[in-house]
Design a protein that fits this description.
The chain is an alpha/beta fold. It has 2 domains: about 220 residues, DHBP synthase, CATH 3.90.870; about 110 residues, 3-Layer(aba) Sandwich (Rossmann fold), CATH 3.40.50.11030. It contains 9 helices and 16 strands. A hairpin with a 4-residue loop joins strand 2 and strand 3. Helix 1 packs across helix 4 and helix 8 runs parallel beside helix 9. The chain is globular, with a radius of gyration of 20 Å. Bound molecules: threonylcarbamoyladenylate and magnesium ion (MG).
Length: about 350
């Protein structure tokens, strides 16, 4: 069913209260509002309203077995949603919230089953974006918000990306310009011993290790091949993810050897009459003879690279390339999140340089 999607432009630092209140009223009435967070845009619904959350899954065409993240405006709002807060989670909330860290807890009974896809756990985070925090405050409820894209598409880092996917399917979007981080939050399972990173994201593993004496990366989070579904703890990991329309292939290995392998693949796909894109870095930009070449930024600045990733994947689609050949990046800091997304986008089609 198509509806008119309202667009509220708001100042990202001093959001207009009128727009925030209008958006909050939609949430309180069971509607769907996309809003910016520091990572990507989320699609919000009242997390305690089962009907609203079901509509959220439908708008995104998201499989019902993949639960969204529940957003809170204050640490104290976590307690009624969970059965217990482990002491280590307490420390993490104080150190990293508001921010791009999602924690998995045992859930309490106030949370509708649909919000957690029938699981006995819940994913919660407090976002670090003034607009998101204002919306949470005015809505006065926890907000379930997966990334505001159609299921399987790259996450939106601007309101335009949201509208590309969801115009006519949601009630409103709060447009506060591009997001700051550009990849989703780190998902950390606090019910596992030791705590386990299910999805690398905006809070680097290296930072978590400084605070937790023991923290593990789930094998799926760093896999360079498909992992059997039953081993996938985070429900999201078994679904196709982050994929633009174009086929993606990834070239990993020694940075100095990557360009010749990429060009070999460019020639191969050109012979097949494909329109070929290369997703590269500033250092290698001049090496390529593809139809469309785009740089994520310098290999030395993984923060900038993360910020450009999803936007560039969408830009390749706009340029109608058939295949995107992407360069592998260092598996450190935000590079770990970027590589996790690229490997999934490639369906693990990885060439070694
Ligand atoms: O940065 C972000 O995290 C963005 C912004 C909007 O906050 N949100 C986001 O949500 O990326 P979503 O729904 O696209 O991804 C949530 C991830 C999925 O991989 C899902 O499977 C996992 O969190 N997840 C949710 N609940 C879980 C649970 N109870 N146990 C394990 N994984 C869970
Ligand atoms: Mg998502």
């Amino acid at each position: 069913m198509m509806k008119k999607t309202l667009v509220f432009k708001v100042n990202s630092k001093k959001p207009e209260l009128e727009a925030i209140r209008a958006a909050a009223n939609i949430i309180k009435n069971g509607g769907l509002v996309a809003f910016p967070t520091e990572t990507v845009y989320g699609l919000g619904a009242d997390a305690l309203n089962a009907k609203a959350v079901l509509a959220l899954f439908e708008a995104k065409k998201r499989p019902l077995d993949n639960p969204p993240i529940v957003h809170v405006g204050k640490i104290e709002n976590v307690y009624k949603l969970v059965r217990e807060v482990p002491p280590k989670a307490e420390v993490l909330m104080r150190k990293f919230w508001p921010g791009p860290l999602t924690l998995i807890f045992k859930r309490s009974d106030v949370v509708p089953s649909v919000t957690v896809a029938g699981l006995d756990t819940i994913a919660i985070r407090m976002p670090r974006h003034i607009v998101a925090l204002a919306l949470l405050r005015e809505s006065n409820c926890p907000i379930a918000a997966p990334s505001a894209n159609l299921a399987g598409k790259p996450s939106p880092t601007s309101a335009n990306h949201v509208l590309e996917d969801l115009n006519g399917r949601i009630d409103a979007v709060l447009d506060a310009g591009p997001t700051h981080i550009g990849v989703e939050s780190t998902v950390l399972d606090m019910t596992a011993k030791p705590p386990q990173i299910l999805r690398p994201g905006g809070t680097p593993y290296e930072e978590l290790r400084k605070v937790l004496s023991n923290v593990e990366l789930h094998p799926v989070a760093v896999a360079d091949r498909e992992i059997p579904v039953e081993k996938a703890r985070s429900p999201g990991v078994k679904h196709k993810h982050y994929a633009p329309n174009a086929e993606v292939v990834l070239v990993e290995g020694e940075p100095s050897k990557i360009p010749s392998k990429v060009n070999e693949l460019v020639d191969f796909y050109k012979q097949e009459n494909k329109r070929v894109g290369v997703l590269t870095t500033d250092e290698n930009f001049s090496h390529y003879r593809a139809d469309v070449v785009k740089s994520l930024g310098s290999r030395k600045n993984l923060t900038v690279i993360a910020n450009n990733l999803f936007r560039l994947l969408r830009e390749f689609d706009a340029e109608k390339v058939d295949v995107i050949i992407a360069e592998g990046l260092p598996m450190e800091r935000l590079g770990l999140a970027v590589m996790n997304r690229l490997r999934k986008a490639a369906g693990y089609k990885i060439f070694k340089a």
